[in-house]
Amino acid sequence: MEGSIEARVSHEVDLWLRWLPKWQPGTHRARMRLCRTCFGSPVIAAAGLTTDVPHAVQHSMSMRMKLIIDAAVDDYTDRNLPLLQRELEEAERRDRAQHYHPSEGLGPEAAGLELDPEPEDGHPFLFTLGELAAGSAPDAAGAAGRESAASAPELPLEPPPLSEEEKQAIRAEVRLADEFAQQVGRRVCAELVQHRERITAGVARYVEPQVVALLADLGRELDSPMWPSS
Predict the structure, then answer these.
(1) Are 137 and 145 in contact (CB under 8 A)?
(2) What pLDDT score was predicted for residue 135?
(3) Quick one: which of 123, 156, 116 has its CA closest to 137?
(4) Side-chain-side CA neighbours of residue 210 (13 Å)
(5) Which residues share a beta bridge with 120?
(6) Where are the alpha helices (DSSP H) in 81-207?
């Protein structure tokens, strides 16, 4: 596992550095809520991205490291935790039966982010991606949405209830999976520290100039002669 984690962290940092030149400051409104993936994340701290780094840049790194941790935990669960693996497979089968998954196929830069923007007073949405995913979009979504819902496969039957012994066994396996995830997470953070220098160099080269230019533009707007004098 040691070499595998090391190699994957290095590879994902390489991909992140290739993506970084494509990043541009967002033009939409600021986030109204803190990102639970990035705020206080030990991954962000290990990468040296805690101070004066835009959230989109942080989030891309967080999600790439999450891919590594999730893959390691999935492999561990498949090999060592049969009851938990069975429950996960059952949940996945039911999830696949849903007719629309707006979060599928997103890159690490967008994965985990909220799909719908914050609503504005007096400007309701016709429908939201969240409603479509839940199958509760209003009729205004159109006939195409209704036909899609009508043709969706039926959900699998609910599995029989678990016995108390099975519940206890699954709880024990969940604890083992959590402990393993924490172990892998610590290893990922330790490896990420080794790449901090080139991560910082990438931010200085591609991100900081854009932030400085954005602040300069803002300053010019605030100092505009069109503003009334005080």
Answers:
(1) yes
(2) 64
(3) 116
(4) 16
(5) 123
(6) 82-96, 129-134, 143-151, 164-193, 196-202
- Whether the pLDDT of residue 149 is over 50: the answer is no
CA distance 136 to 97: 15
Which H/E stretch holds residue 211?
helix 208-222
Q: How far apart are CA 97 and CA 153, in angstroms?
A: 6
Contact in structure between 184 and 68 (CB atoms under 8 Å): yes
pLDDT computed for residue 54 by the predictor: 92
With vertex at residue 48, the alpha carbon angle to CA 44 and CA 52, rounded to the nearest 5 degrees, is 90
Task: Report the pLDDT value the prediction gives residue 92, as an integer from 0 to 100.
Answer: 82
Paired residues of 123 in beta bridges: 120
DSSP codes of every residue in 43-54: HHHHHT--SS--
Token duo for residue 67: 């891919």
Query: How many other CB atoms sit within 10 Å of the CB of residue 143?
Result: 8
* Unique residue bearing structure tokens 């497979």: 89
Residues 6+ apart with CB under 8 A from 47: 61, 192, 195, 196, 199
Q: What is the pTM of this model?
A: 0.71
Instruction: List the one residue out of 86, 95, 96 whose CA is nearest residue 160.
Output: 86
Each residue of 162-179: b (16+ CB within 10 Å) or e? eeeeeeebbeebeeebee
Mean pLDDT of the chain: 80
- Contact of 148 with 99, CB cutoff 8 Å: yes
Digit-coded pLDDT (tens) for 156-171: 566 778 888 989 999 9
Q: Residue 120, SS3?
A: strand
